[in-house]
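re: ur msg from earlier - yeah i can do the zinc ion complex, just paste it... oh wait u already did. ok heres what im feeding in:
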Amino acid sequence: MEIAFYGAAQQVTGSKHVITLKSGKRILLDCGLFQGKGSQVDGLNRHFGFNPKDIDLFILSHAHIDHSGLIPKLVKEGYEGKIWCTPATRDLCEFMLLDSAHIQESDIKYINLALKERGKPLIKPIYTIEDAKACMSSFYTIPYNTVKQIDEDVWVEFTDAGHILGSAVVNLRIKDGMHYHRIAFTGDLGRYTNRIIRTPQDFPQCDFLIAESTYGNRLHPHPPKPKEKLLEVVRSTCIEKGGKLIIPAFSVGRTQEIVSVLNDLEFEGQMPPIKVFVDSPMAIDATEVMREHSDCFNEDMQRFMQKDPDPFGFSRLTYVRSVDESKALNDIKEPCIIISASGMIEGGRIKHHLINSIENKKNTILIVGYCSKSSVGGQLVNGAEEVSLFGKPYKVRADVRKINAFSAHGDYEEMIRTISCQDKQIMKKIFLVHGDPEVMEDYRATLLQRDFHNIYIPDYKQHFQI
Ligand SMILES: [Zn+2]
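and the outut:
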């Protein structure tokens, strides 16, 4: 048997791993989009490095676009089999892939305008909205903790990875000639403090582990007290300064966590009487999917829902879908909270809210998740005095605050805690994926200190015989 890495190899996006059996049968784990800008990223997304027609089985760990975002292209280019994932992952993919296709199409229109002006040949999107709709009929679901034989030689079981709704560790048992191999792929691993979904679950013993390494050299602040911190920021901004609180947040997971904290404060009577707006169509879709999959919630959240059946709704909270309603938020003069995407302020409606609020010192911009250094969110966290929005400079007069408690990725202690369910002596090899190279080196060193062994950091397209 052989395993090859076609993405998330010494980087954090483009997750794609191919297992080839002695019989020639090929299993693809994840089919993620490489994210970022530039011709190199575009090239990686346009050429898989393998032929989709040669893939026999495809299994998806979770719905994030860096794990799922090239599925429409995979199906368009000839993958004819089923797409196996958990029920919640399927439902999240339904609107996330459409949104991704919409971004591809609108980006290409913009690029083609420039190419046309220069008399150069026009290019096509990597896939279209039609492609994204077409691939959905290939999705088949398996609930958590259920062993399913998906082929005469392959059995799969999803265990909860605790990262986002529906996220799974993919546990495979493969018959390869005379031998059976057990391979586990962590996908992305979550935290032990998520308010809504369950913590990462122990997973069955494997022989070979493909493990994510995003925060392989980082520890999250401990213990996080997001509710107290958020209440303090709400009070100081909206009551003491009489300003607006602007929260850039990822639509899937992060927004629902923030809303559930605010809902909690409202339920306890601690929330000041101010209006809250969630201004993101994708966050509205994600919230709907979360409501439908409350079976994936942790015990605390399920217990809370016996007292308050809707943890994502309260009387002063409004979900804003239409563009006109979104624009109307600019005219609100009284203190309020606006939660909008994207989390790093790289696109989406949040940029308009920033333009409207960043130059007024009464307001606060609250960063609640990871922001890359070059993003507007990253610049704000690093103390920028001026930022550029739609090509225009804006002075940063609003307060900038940060709450670190909402990451969807476990830190290295949390990742090690999750994979420590494995007997280290039985595991033959560990492959580290989904991390920056220097972070992976640090993570490998820590794992070696903790008696894990045979740890590899694959290169892009590197093959291993196992
Ligand atoms: Zn993820």
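cool cool. The first helix runs from residue 39 to 46. ping me if u need the other ligands too
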